[in-house]
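Risk mitigation, structural track. In case the binding assays with oxa(dethia)-CoA fail to produce interpretable data, a predicted complex structure has been prepared as a fallback.
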Amino acid sequence: MSLRSIIAGAGGYLPERVVTNDELARTVDTSDDWIRERTGIRQRHFAGPHETAAFMGTAAARAALTHAKAEPSDVDAVILATSTPDQAFPATAIRVMAALGMQRGFGFDLAAACAGFIYALSVADGMIRAGQAKGVLVIGSEVYSRILNWQDRGTCVLFGDGAGAVFLRASDGSDTDQGILSTHLHAQGSLGDILYVDGAVGQRDRPGHLVMNGREVFRHAVTRLAEAVDEALNANGLARRDIDWLVPHQANRRIIDGMGRKLGLAADRVVITVDRHANTSAASVPLALSEACQDGRIKRGDLVLLEALGGGLAWGSALVRM
Ligand code: UT7
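Fallback model:
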């Protein structure tokens, strides 16, 4: 019997502080109209000093475990996708393990920018299929407010902070068709300079700020994500009409709407959080997924397509029977 990974629960965490477009426009040369029209963003959450990637990741992980009716003792591994870790090391994932009171298992961070959660989900799924772990927490947690350049209005209005998590449980597939059907990962390093952070802890006196050529990223996102959707469907012998829900990376409403139209999905079958969360990078897909699972929109048996693209460029998709 071949092993499969089931999404047993999903949870999220958003910082307490909400910042509207109008509030940003008091200090940045921008307007609510411009931000809404070009991106669909109305507001974002910004982390307070205590709301680090580990703090928010732990809260999201707890919510996912509660949703799955699981305990920290059921977790064999924690994989945490972030570009804004608390420290260079220990891994933020291991800080989360400690905060959850885990006495065993292993954990590590994974960096694939906005595609980080899809990458982490793929790695976790591979470990479960290989029999290396039976219960895996997959987390995306980001504090982009700490790496934004407030002098660059083309980027600082686009991002927010938050964390999302899922708890994956191994199933032998004998009694259900549930589970992650496939994941598909891609990267093209020659496009690394259209979206990057110009520093890191390994660079003297340069913690780094986010830099983006928005138009170029937009252009590649539309093409690559459309290809990724077809790749996922073809790999499973499924058609666009089979998809019940699209849970896309939440960077820009225009990109999301375009993808929904391509799939022929009614607007209410596409999960949208970008209006309230802005772009939370690796946290955006699990935050959107957890919202739609927790409020009952996504139900057991639904076919859900997850996709994301970001710095690297790195992108990917996952097709999941819930
Ligand atoms: O998560 C990773 C993936 N990221 C993405 O997918 C992001 C993809 N890119 C985008 O979402 C869009 O390209 C942006 C939202 C970043 C920008 O939208 P755009 O329609 O491509 O605008 P633009 O960069 O071409 O700028 C248009 C105009 C410029 O003025 P001029 O040169 O036409 O006079 C900008 O200076 O808008 C101006 N502008 C702004 N105006 C007010 C740029 N940022 C702002 C701003 N407020 N915040």
